[in-house]
């Protein structure tokens, strides 16, 4: 029964907790039992907060029994990426330099979840300072993919992806600067939503790249992603990039009706040099949507050819500016891969940075024009299947290519433009999930969610999910 509880989504648990059929304590204990059973192998957690979580769950139980039910997240256990601040608690950012850092305030998203009565079970592992896509962390150990413990879970929010996929949390939050929500969502077979830039406040989140950073939900279902987006959205004057736009009731307008929806396909960029199994699976999913009444339109976005340069120059220079002082005073305390990227960022010229911003504007204009004709753009999330931990290359149709060059190829444009993008699993190949990416126009997350919801209803994975019981016992 406990494993069944931990495997449920927020949507499934909410009515059971609200109607007092189950207790938040039962659900929290179920999640923590999975952590006890599996995290020794997966290493998704940096810190497990068992006693605090149980006490919070007991408090939530008393509130609900007394008729003080706060809402759909009341009593739901969640662990968050260890880059979000909790007042008077450590936030390591997956680093040695900040291993003892204690915040004196809550991140806005943390504050909102606390107000909803969420139970926090701990802090999740991540790529050091979110500057990488493997979650092979030199200070806290590598996180492993629950589908295959020899594979990476993606990153930088790899702990979040692995914990959700293995039922060691009911849901989580990640951060996304070049794909760090969607990459682990693709690798771990879950839902990962990067909202429009400015939709969710980043106040109280340690930055990687000021102009590219996003916070978003990582969940088991599309409904859960819509619920967290609905809960966490809203203008925050403490975040200078926060957008003052209306908050929508995303769960109420969620629909699997895609009849008449116009789906854009860009062949030159998003279907170029893709693993055959990935390409076949994504195209098959698109055909399924077409059978449901969606219309397919081929689109051209010429600036995509320059987007990799724009993304990499922007993220590397902004990250290096943030970490410059520590690089000068204690560079030896960074992991080798992060130190290399920070050193590289110091070498990029102002001319290159300004060229990258010109590319960014051109790309944004072309996407805006494209979304006047289509509702969503669909592509693979990643052009490859999750590689082995420690590998620096990926296999794409028999050719060994640089992991770093390939990993943000399809996700980076969403950060450069700030447009909403979601990864949803659409197939399994060689025992590993394949992610399909859905992009939308600015602040039109409902269109992205609706297409994802339609795909989810098709049950393309046929109910399959990561199952650690055999892997851990073997």
TrEMBL record:
<dbReference type="InterPro" id="IPR023631">
    <property type="entry name" value="Amidase_dom"/>
</dbReference>
<keyword id="KW-0808">Transferase</keyword>
<dbReference type="Pfam" id="PF01425">
    <property type="entry name" value="Amidase"/>
</dbReference>
<dbReference type="InterPro" id="IPR036928">
    <property type="entry name" value="AS_sf"/>
</dbReference>
<dbReference type="InterPro" id="IPR020556">
    <property type="entry name" value="Amidase_CS"/>
</dbReference>
<feature type="domain" description="Amidase">
    <location>
        <begin position="26"/>
        <end position="449"/>
    </location>
</feature>
<dbReference type="GO" id="GO:0016740">
    <property type="term" value="F:transferase activity"/>
</dbReference>
<protein>
    <submittedName>
        <fullName>Asp-tRNA(Asn)/Glu-tRNA(Gln) amidotransferase GatCAB subunit A</fullName>
    </submittedName>
</protein>
<dbReference type="InterPro" id="IPR000120">
    <property type="entry name" value="Amidase"/>
</dbReference>
<comment type="similarity">
    <text>Belongs to the amidase family.</text>
</comment>
């Amino acid at each position: 029964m406990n494993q069944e509880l931990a495997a449920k989504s927020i949507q499934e648990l909410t009515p059971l907790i609200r109607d007092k059929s189950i207790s938040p304590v039962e659900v929290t204990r179920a999640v923590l039992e999975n952590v006890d059973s599996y995290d020794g192998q997966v290493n998704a957690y940096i810190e497990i907060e068992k006693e605090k979580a149980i006490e919070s769950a007991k408090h939530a139980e008393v509130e609900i029994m007394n008729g003080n039910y706060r809402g759909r997240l009341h009593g739901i256990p969640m662990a968050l990426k260890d880059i979000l601040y909790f007042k008077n608690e450590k936030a390591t950012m997956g680093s040695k330099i900040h291993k003892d850092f204690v915040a004196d305030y809550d991140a806005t998203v943390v504050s909102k979840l606390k107000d909803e009565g969420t139970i926090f079970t701990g802090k999740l592992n991540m790529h050091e300072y979110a500057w990488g896509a493997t979650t092979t962390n030199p200070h806290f150990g590598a996180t492993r993919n629950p589908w295959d413990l020899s594979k990476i879970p993606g990153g930088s929010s790899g702990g979040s992806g692995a914990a959700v996929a293995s039922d060691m949390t009911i849901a989580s939050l990640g951060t996304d600067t070049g794909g760090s929500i969607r990459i682990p969502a693709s690798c771990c077979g879950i839902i990962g939503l990067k909202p429009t830039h400015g939709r969710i406040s980043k106040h109280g989140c340690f930055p990687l790249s000021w102009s590219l950073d996003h916070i978003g939900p990582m969940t088991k279902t599309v409904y859960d992603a819509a619920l967290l987006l609905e809960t966490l959205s809203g203008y925050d004057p403490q975040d200078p990039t926060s957008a003052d736009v209306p908050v929508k009731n995303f769960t109420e307008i969620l629909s699997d009706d895609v009849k008449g929806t116009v789906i854009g396909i860009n062949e030159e960029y998003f279907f170029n040099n893709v693993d055959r199994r990935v390409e076949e699976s994504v195209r098959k999913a698109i055909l399924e949507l077409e059978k449901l009444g969606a219309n397919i339109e081929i689109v051209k976005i010429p600036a995509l050819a320059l987007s990799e340069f724009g993304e990499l120059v922007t993220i590397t220079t902004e990250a290096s500016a943030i970490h410059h002082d520590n690089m000068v005073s204690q560079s030896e305390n960074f992991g080798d891969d992060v130190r290399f990227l920070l050193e590289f960022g110091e070498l990029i010229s102002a001319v290159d940075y300004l060229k990258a911003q010109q590319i960014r504007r051109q790309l944004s204009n072309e996407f805006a024009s494209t979304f006047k004709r289509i509702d969503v753009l669909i592509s693979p999330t990643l052009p490859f299947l999750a590689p082995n931990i420690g590998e620096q290359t990926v296999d794409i149709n028999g050719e060994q290519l640089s992991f770093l060059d390939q990993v943000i190829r399809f996700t980076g444009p969403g950060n450069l433009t700030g447009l909403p993008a979601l990864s949803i699993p659409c197939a399994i190949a060689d025992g590993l999930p394949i992610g399909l990416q859905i992009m939308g126009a600015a602040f039109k997350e409902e269109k992205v969610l609706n297409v994802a919801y339609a795909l989810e209803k098709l049950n393309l994975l046929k109910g399959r999910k990561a199952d650690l019981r055999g892997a851990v016992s073997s």
